[in-house]
Amino acid sequence: MSPASPMRLVPPSPALRDRVPVRGPAAATTATLTFAEEVAALLRDRPRRLPAHALYDALGSSLFDAICHLPWYPITRAETALLQTHRLAILEAAGRRPRVVELGPGNGEKLATLMQDGSGDDPAFDVHLVDVSATALDAASARLRRLPGVAVHTHVARYEVGLREVTLSRTAGETLLVAFLGSNIGNFDPPEAAALLQDIRGAMERGDTLLIGADLVKPVEQLQAAYDDPLGVTAAFNCNLLVRLNRELGADFDLEHFAHDARWNSRAQRMEMHLVSLAQQRVHVPGAKLVLDFHAGETIWTESSYKYESATFGETLWEAGFSTIASWQDQDAGFLLTLAAAR
């Protein structure tokens, strides 16, 4: 991997500067649904779908942690290197002693990199971790609590809900640094991503900072290897969703009759994960009151990972109410780390 190179994004066009971003809570129509209700609604849809957040049960979270260490999935290593190199500049811009909120912390490794440099004189941090996976929060909080001067609080919630919980206890004059790393933004389609960024901005005050990672468009063969690795770890991660439905909703999915499929959608600039039915079959999901008939080749769409262009990502942030302070790109991995201020 070549050294990460600093980069400034193209400033927003005058038309974008004059456009007032719409702010307010992001639409979250599924937030009030039970897991069974959400599964029922999405599996009845065409194409059939399942909620991507459901991939992250205890086993799914562990499998994703393993994916992050695969040689074909360079995002985590690239982002960690960028954080290590630019951590002091990031913390200086955030106010040195901000309240830190990480949305989707994974195992906590990246945030730990940001908050320590081995000098022994790091400032105290009040850290809040937000994720739908209690398992991921346990792993991240255990890692971060080993750091001196770090107080860790966990919130088992969707991102926008957990962030608003944190801001309710905010003290006067306290700055906020929201970390949204690992290209988690890519798991939302463009309208959802825009709404989520607006919702994040709505919970922040002017001058607070957002640290966000974005995976970039790159050669298809590189993307394909990242989402369909030779060891089959990503396939297990995807198929585990059916294991979860069998366990929690009493379904009778036969894993031998479904296969992992990763595909690049060039028009939408996204990688898609699907579970493909290998035969004509009937599946019962009593917990969701479903009886499903699949034909051979029919898929269940489980996740999308949208890829961004470095030259336009700043405009995406601008439209949500942020202005770019600085950005850094790992050219080999095709990954962008951006620090932006709420305006």
UniProtKB/TrEMBL annotation:
Signal peptide per UniProt: none
The record's keywords, sorted A to Z, are:
Methyltransferase, Transferase
Ranges for domain Histidine-specific methyltransferase SAM-dependent come to 35-340
EC number, as in UniProt: 2.1.1.44
Q: Which Pfam families match?
A: Methyltransf_33
The Swiss-Prot or TrEMBL record annotates one GO molecular function as:
L-histidine N(alpha)-methyltransferase activity
Q: Can the keyword Transferase be found in this entry's annotation?
A: yes
Query: Which GO biological-process labels does this protein carry?
Result: methylation
Q: Does the keyword tRNA-binding apply?
A: no
Which protein is depicted?
Histidine-specific methyltransferase EgtD
